[in-house]
C-alpha cells in the first residue's frame, strides 16, 4: 500500500491532470517499487537526496530493467518529488540534479538488398503493364522516385523538391543544397537517370519542379510520396509499416557500407554535418568485420 504522500500524488494526477486509469496503475506500480527500495535501504522519504536517486537507478539496472523502462520509472519519481516540494512536504527537490539513464540510439529500420530489388522490380513491372495515360504517368513517377531515392540517399524533402533542371541535365550527378545551406554532389546510377528521363517526358516544360503536383509548394509533398510508397510496398509483398522514404535512405547508406564504402564517404553522400550522425550505421560495419574474421582468419577453419 503506498504511503500517504504517494496517495496524495496519485489523487492529484487523477483530479488535476486527468490521468487515465492505466496511467494511474502504472504510476502506482512505479511508486510502490521506489518506496520499496527506500524501505529496503532504510531511507526515510524526507531524507532522500540526489545520491539516493542515483543509487535507485543503479538498483534498477542491476535488476535488468531496460534503459527506457528505468527512464519511465525515474520520470514518475521525479514528478513525485516535485509534487512533495511544491506542496511544502519536502525542503528541496532531490531529483533536479539527477540525469536519466542513457538510452541506446535506436537503430534504423533496414530493408535487405533483395527487398529493395523486389520493390524496384514491382515498380518496373507497373510501368510496363499500365496502358492508360494517367496510371502510366503515375507509375513512371513512382519508379523515378524510387530509383532516385535508393541511388542517392536523398532526404525526402530534397527528393520531392528537385528542380526540373535536375532531370534535363546530362550530368551523372545531382547538385544538392541540403540542411544548413550545405552543398554536395551526389552521383547517379544509370537506372536512376533512365527512370528520371522516362518520367520527365510527362512533366510540362513550364514546370519548375521535377515532380510537380497540385500543392501549395507546387511539387509533390512528402506526405503524398510516403502514402504512395506504402501502396508500392504492398504491391511488392512487403509490410507497409517497414517501408518509408527514410527507410530507403537508410537502405542506401547501409548497403553501401556492407559493400565496403568508407563511413566518411557515406557521411558526405547523406549530407550529415557531423560524422557522429552517420555512426548510427556502425552496426553494419561491425557485422562486416565479424564476417571478414569468420571468412578469412586462418584459425576459423572448420
- Indicate the low-confidence ranges by residue numbers: none
Q: Which strand-content bin applies to the residues?
A: under 5%
Give the number of DSSP strands. 2
What general outline do the C-alpha atoms trace? elongated
SSE series: HHHHHHHHEEHHHHHH
Helicity level: 55-70%
Strand order of the largest sheet: 1-2
Give a short account of the largest sheet: 2 strands, antiparallel
Rg estimate, integer Å: 27 Å
Distance between the termini: 59 Å
Mean pLDDT: 85
**Helix-strand category:** mainly alpha
Question: What topology does this entry show?
Answer:
Blueprint: H1 4-16, H2 21-41, H3 50-62, H4 67-86, H5 113-129, H6 133-152, H7 156-160, H8 164-168, E1 173-177, E2 183-187, H9 190-200, H10 222-235, H11 245-258, H12 263-270, H13 275-278, H14 282-296
Antiparallel strand pairs: 1-2
Report on the structure:
With about 300 residues, the protein is mostly helical. The chain contains 14 helices and 2 strands, in the order ααααααααββαααααα. The chain has a two-stranded antiparallel ribbon. A hairpin with a 5-residue loop joins strand 1 (about 175) and strand 2.
Amino acid at each position: 500500500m503506498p504511503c500517504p504522500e504517494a496517495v496524495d500524488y496519485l489523487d492529484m494526477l487523477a483530479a488535476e491532470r486527468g490521468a487515465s486509469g492505466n496511467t494511474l496503475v502504472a504510476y502506482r506500480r512505479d511508486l510502490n517499487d521506489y518506496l520499496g527500495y527506500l524501505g529496503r535501504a532504510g531511507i526515510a522519504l524526507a531524507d532522500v537526496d540526489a545520491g539516493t536517486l542515483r543509487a535507485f537507478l543503479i538498483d534498477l539496472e542491476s535488476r535488468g530493467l531496460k534503459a527506457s523502462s528505468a527512464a519511465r520509472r525515474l520520470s514518475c519519481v521525479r514528478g513525485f518529488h516535485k509534487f512533495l516540494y511544491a506542496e511544502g512536504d519536502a525542503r528541496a527537490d532531490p531529483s533536479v540534479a539527477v540525469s536519466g539513464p542513457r538510452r541506446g540510439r535506436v537503430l534504423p529500420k533496414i530493408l535487405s538488398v533483395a527487398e529493395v530489388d523486389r520493390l524496384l522490380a514491382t515498380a518496373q513491372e507497373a510501368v510496363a503493364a499500365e496502358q492508360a495515360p494517367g496510371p502510366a504517368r503515375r507509375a513512371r513517377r513512382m519508379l523515378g522516385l524510387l530509383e532516385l531515392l535508393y541511388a542517392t540517399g536523398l532526404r525526402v524533402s530534397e527528393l520531392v523538391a528537385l528542380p526540373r533542371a535536375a532531370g534535363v541535365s546530362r550530368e551523372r550527378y545531382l547538385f544538392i543544397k541540403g540542411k544548413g545551406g550545405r552543398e554536395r554532389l551526389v552521383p547517379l546510377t544509370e537506372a536512376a537517370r533512365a527512370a528520371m528521363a522516362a518520367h520527365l517526358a510527362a512533366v510540362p516544360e513550364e514546370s519548375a519542379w521535377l515532380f510537380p503536383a497540385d500543392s501549395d509548394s507546387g511539387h509533390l509533398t512528402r506526405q503524398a510520396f510516403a502514402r504512395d510508397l506504402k501502396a508500392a510496398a504492398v504491391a511488392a509483398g512487403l509490410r507497409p509499416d517497414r517501408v518509408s522514404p527514410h527507410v530507403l535512405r537508410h537502405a542506401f547508406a547501409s548497403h553501401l557500407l556492407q559493400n565496403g564504402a568508407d563511413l566518411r564517404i557515406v557521411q558526405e553522400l547523406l549530407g550529415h554535418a557531423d560524422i557522429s550522425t552517420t555512426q548510427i550505421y556502425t552496426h553494419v560495419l561491425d557485422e562486416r568485420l565479424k564476417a571478414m574474421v569468420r571468412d578469412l582468419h586462418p584459425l576459423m577453419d572448420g
